[in-house]
Each structure stands twice: as C-alpha cells, then as structure tokens.
Design goal:
Nucleotidyltransferase, domain 5; 5-stranded mixed β-sheet; 10 helices; alpha+beta; 13 strands; globular; 5-stranded antiparallel β-sheet
C-alpha cells in the first residue's frame, strides 16, 4: 500500500490521517473527534492505540506545548556503530569546504558493496537532517565508480553525525506568521566535474517551520549561472504550487500566493521580463513555467542577499561559521529526548 494522507470533516471537526502500510498518524483540533475515530477503527480492524506519537518509522518525536521536535538519534548511532566509528573524532561540517569530486580512474575502482549499504542508510537520515542533504547527494553520485576520496568523504559525514547525534528538526507553534509559505531556491554553476551539470537546492518554510527540502543535480546542462538559477526557480515554483494547493486542501481554505527568494538578479529579471528572449530562447519550454505563475499572481519572486540565502547549504560545502548559521535557520537543533 502506498503512503497517503486522508482528510475528514472541516473546522473543529477536521481530522487528518497519515497512513504508511499499517501505521497511522491521526491529528486534529478536537480530541473527542480523534478518540471517536480511534474507536471506529478498532471496531473495524484489529488495531492497537499507542497513544501520543513518540516514535514513527525510526523517527523519535517529542511533543511539547509550543513545539514539536523530531530526530533519529538511535538510528544515527546505529549507523556510526555499523562502520565501527564510535570512537572517531567528530567534525564541525559534513563536507570539506571547496571539495570537488570526480569518478574513479579505470582500473582503480574499489568494491562498492559496503559503500552502497552505508549510502542507503545515510540517505534515510536526511528525513530529519537537511544539514547533510548536500553532502549525501554528492556522495551518492559515485556508487558505480568508487575511489578512496569518495570513502573519505562519506566517512567525514559519519564523523559529523557522530558529533551531532541528538540533532533534529523543530516545529514551533504560534509564531505569529501564520501559514504563509516561503521558498528559497539556489544553484551552483556546473559544479559537477563529470557531466558539468549544476546542483540546486530548494527549501520551503511554512511560517517559521521548515517543511520540505531538496538538493539534487539538474537534468540539463546550464550555459550560465543565470540559467542555472532560472531553472531552479522554475522547479521551486512547481514545488510551491503543489505545497500551496496541498495546504489549502488540508485546512479547507483558498490557495494562497507564496513567495520565492532568489539571490540572482538576472534570473529574477528573466522570470519577470519575457523581453529577454534572445538570452533564453534555448531554454526548454517547461522551465518558463515560472513566468506563467508570476503572470497569474500565484507567486511573488524577490531578491535575497547571498548572506541570507538559506538554500546555499544545499548547493555547496560551506565553512563552519556559515554552515552553523544556516543550520540554525533551518531549525536543526539539539533535541532533548526523555
């Protein structure tokens, strides 16, 4: 069975049910409605009520009056133990600054079995650790042609995790911002030394809370930094439209306009001004979707300074000070579990 979200009722009677195989998460504003739904499910299926959510699919959840935190401390500790690095020296960042990797030279490849197993385990940790998303994306590109430097890179990620085992995401209530959706998009330019493709980062906040993040490689080669940022903005617009529609459906309201922050002025002008035809006529039509969103008043595209571009953490390895600053802005903090 595929995972899904189901909705019943509106207003104070609203119930949202998250389903994954045979595990359910039930939430809503009315405790009586939640209890009533649980009884209905128990009478129909053989089910157990585990009470207030504290553990789900390897994620440790702590619910307090004004915030919820999630982490994967126990799972992260198992990963460190799996590679016999429980006594390793921790490091401050998951990836060395300005590091560039390429595929192994023919005849020098290493066995990839253990590497693939570790990569697979670490990728699940990204569900609560956006701070390692970029490093994991880079390390995952070399499962076919593995070299010593790739092993060194992924071991550094483990060393970073060793020093931040209890870190996770926080979600605060009542910050006064409401349900405003705010996105950040950023991209490097041809950072991939093998195929010359760019790496992009997309982050969305609902109020002050991080709700989705992505660090991936473009499917096409960009001819300039402007084009790389423009393509990323189009992908961010697609994500924002989907999120805004989902939120509207869940809360039973109208689809709201969202904001997208980009640190490249040329990309913003290209999105807002179709006169730039000569500079963009080679770009695939699908990436001009953002222009249509702007014209329909679905999204506001604005400039953000590089120093405030939080998505930078998903596009390049940062120095310690900047990395820690952006990690805090993402809401990734030490989580105290009972």
């Amino acid at each position: 069975m595929e995972h899904a979200v189901y909705k019943r009722g509106t207003g104070d009677s609203l119930l949202l049910v998250g389903l994954y195989v045979d595990d359910l998460i039930i939430c809503g504003p009315n405790n009586l409605k939640i209890a009533e739904f649980k009884e209905q499910m128990k009478n129909t299926f053989s089910m157990s009520d585990l009470g207030l959510l504290s553990y789900y699919l390897g994620m440790e959840v702590k619910q307090e009056k004004h915030q919820i935190t999630i982490c994967q401390k126990a799972y992260a500790a198992k990963i460190v133990e799996m590679v016999n690095m429980t006594r390793c020296n921790p490091c401050d960042t998951p990836m060395e600054q300005r590091l560039k990797l390429t595929t192994a030279k023919p005849g020098t490849e290493l066995d990839v079995t253990s590497y693939r197993r570790l990569i697979g385990s670490l990728r699940y940790l990204v569900n609560t650790r956006p701070d390692i998303a970029y490093a994991m994306g880079i390390a995952s590109r070399f499962v076919e042609a593995l070299a010593k430097e790739h092993w060194s890179t992924v071991k550094r990620i483990v060393r970073y995790i060793k020093g931040t085992l209890d870190y996770g995401c926080k979600f605060q209530k009542g910050d006064g911002i409401g349900l405003n959706l705010l996105g950040y998009t950023d991209s490097d330019c041809s950072g991939d030394l093998v195929r010359k493709k760019s790496t992009f980062g997309i982050i969305f906040f609902l109020g002050s809370n991080l709700v989705t993040w992505s660090s991936q490689k473009h499917k096409v080669v960009a001819l300039s930094s402007c084009e790389a940022e423009y393509i990323t903005a189009a992908l961010g617009a697609c994500q924002g439209v989907w999120l805004s529609r989902l939120i509207a459906e869940l809360v039973g309201g109208e689809t709201q306009k969202f904001s997208l922050l980009i640190d490249n002025q040329s990309a913003i002008e290209l999105a807002k001004n179709p006169v730039f035809h000569d500079r963009s006529k080679h770009i695939d039509t699908r990436y001009h979707y953002i222009r249509d969103c702007i014209e329909k008043n679905i999204v506001d595209v604005n400039h953000v300074g590089t120093d405030e571009q939080v998505a930078d953490i998903l596009t390049k390895p940062l120095g310690r000070i900047k990395f820690v600053e952006f990690r805090l802005k993402l809401g990734v903090i030490p989580v105290q579990q009972d």
